């Protein structure tokens, strides 16, 4: 088996894994009724967007689709960081409500064990990282064909 076949299988594996994480995260969000406010719908939307991007990259791994996948995976990672901050703020606010006179250290320690799990949004970051990894040195991201693509690709020369 040549190295390009192995690399392609690894890319497909990473994409499938990323898509599975999007599905499992969406199912977990639905089962936990993570829909109390509009802001809680963001991870669900990101899961759907990520799954569509992964499926498109698996079916038609073309340059534009792979760049769109990279952008969407970056959004997943940014959404994950936003979710961690949201969970942290909710935990801190809850601890401040039930212990208004507690020292900051006590509140911080209690918030780390709070009702909103701090690392749960990290599933989206993992899915995004796997999706980004699947595009690393992808052959479809080779040489640009038009002048505008060459200018655009010049911006990301080291990212290929």
Fold and architecture overview:
The chain has 160 residues and is mostly helical. The protein is 71% helix and 0% strand. The protein contains six helices and no strands. It has helices at 3-31, 42-59, 63-98, 104-112, 122-134, 147-155. Helix 3 crosses helix 4 and helix 3 packs antiparallel against helix 5. It starts with a helix and ends in a 5-residue tail after the last helix. The model has no long low-confidence stretch (mean pLDDT 91).
Task: Throw out a few tags for this protein.
160 residues; mainly alpha; 71% helix; 0% strand; elongated
* Radius of gyration (Å): 20 Å
- The count of strands amounts to 0
- Gross morphology is elongated
Q: Output mean pLDDT.
A: 91
Number of helices: 6
| Helix-strand topology string | HHHHHH
Helical coverage, percent range: over 70%
- Terminal CA distance: 24 Å
| Low-confidence sequence ranges | none
Which structural class is indicated by helix and strand composition?
mainly alpha
Largest sheet: none
- Which percent range describes the beta-strand content? under 5%
In a few lines, what is going on in this structure?
By secondary structure, the chain is mainly α.
Spell out the blueprint of helices and strands.
Blueprint: H1 3-31, H2 42-59, H3 63-98, H4 104-112, H5 122-134, H6 147-155
């Amino acid at each position: 088996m040549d190295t390009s076949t192995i690399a392609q299988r690894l890319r497909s594996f990473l994409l499938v894994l990323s898509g599975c994480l999007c599905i499992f995260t969406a199912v977990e969000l639905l089962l936990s009724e993570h829909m109390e406010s509009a802001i809680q719908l963001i991870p669900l939307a990101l899961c759907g967007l990520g799954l569509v991007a992964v499926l498109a990259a698996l079916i038609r791994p073309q340059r534009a689709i792979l760049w769109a996948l990279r952008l969407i995976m970056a959004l997943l990672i940014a959404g994950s960081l936003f979710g961690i901050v949201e969970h942290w703020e909710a935990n801190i606010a809850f601890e401040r409500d039930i212990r208004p006179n507690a020292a900051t250290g006590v509140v911080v320690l209690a918030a780390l064990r709070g009702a909103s799990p701090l690392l749960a949004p990290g599933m989206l970051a993992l899915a995004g990282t796997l999706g980004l990894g699947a595009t690393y040195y992808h052959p479809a991201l080779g040489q640009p064909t038009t002048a505008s693509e060459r200018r655009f690709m010049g911006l990301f020369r080291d990212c290929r």
